[in-house]
Amino acid sequence: MPTPRRHYTREFKLDALRLIEEGHPVAEVARNLGIHVNTLHGWRQQFAADPKASFPGNGKSAGKDEEIRQLKKALKRAEQE
To answer: Is the model's pTM score more than 0.85?
Structure first.
């Protein structure tokens, strides 16, 4: 049976990346935090691509997804009127 997917907070991810930036080896950080090395590499790529929009978490959609959601909500409201 597969293991359930774990979710990490934005703060946890940023703290992990901070440890790497401080010079700790990626493998050591991953081992200490109990996560896979590839997970950390993915987080680094996400953060490098867009630091402000990375790791929205807890039901918060990224930029375009959020805009689409708001437009659909406005359309539904207009149709009801």
So the answer is: no
